[in-house]
Structure formats: structure tokens, C-alpha cells
């Protein structure tokens, strides 16, 4: 049984960050996390009103690029990195165990600056090639997303 209001979703975003060595940043979730404890994933998190509420509105009273601000904030908070241009990859929807529908928008972006420093939600990180990612205990679907990014980057170069 879903929520009463079928239009309300939690919105989250993830970043597949790649570097000039052709590697992707993977982070290991804390073993105390409710969802996917100890599994490996990519940085990301939820859209928060604070990401845009105190910024200038456009002339119609809305805000542009709130999701990108969220993604940049989450990457900075979780792994302390600066990222480049964000490119849309795909979206995923799922139901959380508490019945909340979640929409995740997945992006890929180049590493630009900073040294990885993890927040309390993660316990380890590594820069991995596609082959190394395949042998990592990733949350379902993350490997396939990285594989898609690898194909896009190879076809662009």
C-alpha cells in the first residue's frame, strides 16, 4: 500500500564521479545504516528545501538548478570533493520500507578538486576501474550505472 498522496515523492540524487585515470569514486556505507549497511555505492543524498529557499528566485518565483545545488552539497559533505559539469544519466524509483516513494536522479561528473574526506555515513572509499567495481560489493544497479558512464565517456573521447 502506497502513500495517500500519490504525487509526493522524496527526491534524491547521486553522482558517479570519474577522474582522469579512468577510475570511479566508490564509498562504503557505515555498517550501522538502516538501508544497505556495509555496501559500496556512490555519493549522493536527498533534495532539501535549504538547498534553494534562501537563494534568489527567477522572475516567476521559482528556483532553477536546485537539484544540482543538492548534488554539489552532498558530494562536498560526503567526500569533500569539488566536481565539474553534471550530466544526467538516468532515474530510479523505489519504495522505502516505510512506504515513502523515492525518485533518485543519477548524474555523472568529473572530479575537479579536493582530497577525499568521508563523513560519518561512510567508512571507506576507493577509486576503482570498471573491472574493480565489478568485484566490489555494490548496491544493486550501481555497477550497471558505472558501466553506462564508461560507455558514454569512451564514445565521447
Automatic annotation (TrEMBL):
Classification via InterPro entries: NUDIX_hydrolase-like_dom_sf, NUDIX_hydrolase_dom
Transmembrane segments annotated in the record for this chain: none
Domain Nudix hydrolase: 8-151
PANTHER family reported for this sequence: ADP-RIBOSE PYROPHOSPHATASE, DIHYDRONEOPTERIN TRIPHOSPHATE DIPHOSPHATASE
Protein name: Nudix hydrolase domain-containing protein
Amino acid at each position: 500500500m502506497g502513500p495517500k498522496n500519490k504525487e509526493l515523492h522524496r527526491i534524491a540524487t547521486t553522482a558517479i564521479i570519474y577522474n582522469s585515470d579512468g577510475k570511479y569514486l566508490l564509498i562504503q556505507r557505515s555498517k550501522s545504516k538502516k538501508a544497505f549497511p556495509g555496501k559500496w555505492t556512490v555519493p549522493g543524498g536527498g533534495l532539501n528545501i535549504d538547498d534553494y529557499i534562501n537563494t534568489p528566485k527567477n522572475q516567476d518565483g521559482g528556483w532553477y538548478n536546485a537539484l544540482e545545488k543538492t548534488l554539489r552539497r552532498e558530494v562536498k559533505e560526503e567526500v569533500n570533493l569539488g566536481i565539474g559539469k553534471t550530466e544526467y544519466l538516468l532515474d530510479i524509483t523505489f519504495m522505502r520500507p516505510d512506504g515513502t516513494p523515492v525518485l533518485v536522479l543519477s548524474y555523472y561528473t568529473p572530479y575537479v578538486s579536493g582530497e577525499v574526506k568521508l563523513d560519518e555515513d561512510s567508512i571507506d572509499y576507493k577509486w576503482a576501474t570498471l573491472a574493480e567495481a565489478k568485484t566490489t560489493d555494490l548496491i544493486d544497479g550501481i555497477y550497471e550505472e558505472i558501466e553506462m558512464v564508461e560507455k558514454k565517456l569512451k564514445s565521447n573521447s
